[in-house]
């Protein structure tokens, strides 16, 4: 971890690589604002991802496709104000990096300049390798993302497990290898059969961060409102809810409503 006299050490991409070599699991979580950025950082996660999942879980859209670069930068700047120790990674939204390498350099550069993030994440394997190389060559660390890549949900025919069957598994392995060779410091494996994710993990010198990819990955990532049980209509097999906050929010707000209506809040102790 890097340090300066005034700040506590913050996690770097080099730490991710070292932790893979040491067999230390890497904990990553999404966050979309300063409040939760601070809370997850204080909980001791290693990485915070400003995921374009915010377009679904925060903005209420059906997919990530309509997320914009300005929207990602807006949220990443908020998260930056909350996160002190963890590595901050920002998802590049659909069409901000696929059209041309020049576009990708400009847009990823904007994210790095305007948010204070330490890395960007983009989706795609072999096809994105030249872009990843161009980015890493100018000093922008890149986290890859293969398997279920939500920006391609319509081409993939839905949110389904990827890499099933020998041909698809070989393609996914080739995608991960191409990203490593192009300079990625880590790769998200999303919705991949556990044995395949483990094989890919063993074959790479960079860490894999799994979501719905079993225990054989070098680390795990979950979407924060899912983990907290805030997004209580989302119940995929891979998700473990570590709290039931949706029910708690309804209970607390319901109690506030009934006390306001009955006149018991505010009481003398809440008044000046
Ligand atoms: O957008 C996101 O939150 C992600 C994670 C699920 C890895 O890409």
Description of the molecule:
The chain is an alpha/beta fold and about 270 residues long. The chain contains eleven helices and eight strands. The chain has helices at about 15-20, 35-40, 55, 70-80, 100-115, 130-135, 155, 165-180, 195-205, 225, 245-260, and strands at about 25-30, 45-50, 85-90, 120, 140-145, 185-190, 210, 220. Helix 4 (about 70-80) packs parallel to helix 5 and helix 5 (about 100-115) crosses helix 6 (about 130-135). The termini are far apart. The mean pLDDT is about 95. Bound molecules: 3-methyl-2-oxobutanoic acid. 3-methyl-2-oxobutanoic acid binds next to loops.
Write the layout of secondary structure elements.
Layout: H1 13-22, E1 26-30, H2 34-42, E2 47-50, H3 54-57, H4 69-82, E3 87-91, H5 101-115, E4 119-121, H6 129-137, E5 142-147, H7 153-156, H8 166-182, E6 186-190, H9 194-203, E7 208-211, E8 219-222, H10 224-227, H11 245-262
Parallel strand pairs: 1-2, 1-8, 2-3, 3-4, 4-5, 5-6, 6-7, 7-8
Helix pairs in contact: 2-4, 4-5, 5-6, 6-8, 8-9
The protein binds 3-methyl-2-oxobutanoic acid.
């Amino acid at each position: 971890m890097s340090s300066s006299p005034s700040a506590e050490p913050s996690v770097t991409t080099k730490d991710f690589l070292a932790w893979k070599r040491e067999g230390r699991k890497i904990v990553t979580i999404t966050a979309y604002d300063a409040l939760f950025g601070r809370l997850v950082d204080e909980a001791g996660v290693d990485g915070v991802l400003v995921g374009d999942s915010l377009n679904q879980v925060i903005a209420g859209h059906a997919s990530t496709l309509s997320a914009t670069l300005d929207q990602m930068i807006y949220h990443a700047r908020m998260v930056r104000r909350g996160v002190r120790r963890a590595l901050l990674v920002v998802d590049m939204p659909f069409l901000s990096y696929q059209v041309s390498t020049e576009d990708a350099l400009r847009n990823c550069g904007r994210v790095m300049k305007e948010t204070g993030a330490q890395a960007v994440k983009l989706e795609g394997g072999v096809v994105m390798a030249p872009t990843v190389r161009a980015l890493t060559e100018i000093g922008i660390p890149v986290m890859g993302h293969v398997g279920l890549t939500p920006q391609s949900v319509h081409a993939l025919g839905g949110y389904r497990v990827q890499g099933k069957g020998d041909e698809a598994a070989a393609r996914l392995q080739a995608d991960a290898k191409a990203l490593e060779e192009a300079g990625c410091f880590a790769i998200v494996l999303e919705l991949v059969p556990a044995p395949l994710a483990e094989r890919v993990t063993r074959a790479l010198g960079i860490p894999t961060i799994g979501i719905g990819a079993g225990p054989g990955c070098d680390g795990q990532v979950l979407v924060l409102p899912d983990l907290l049980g805030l997004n209580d209509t989302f119940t995929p097999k891979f998700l473990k809810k570590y709290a039931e906050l949706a029910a708690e929010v309804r209970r607390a707000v319901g109690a506030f409503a009934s006390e306001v209506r009955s006149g018991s809040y505010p009481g003398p102790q809440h008044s000046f």
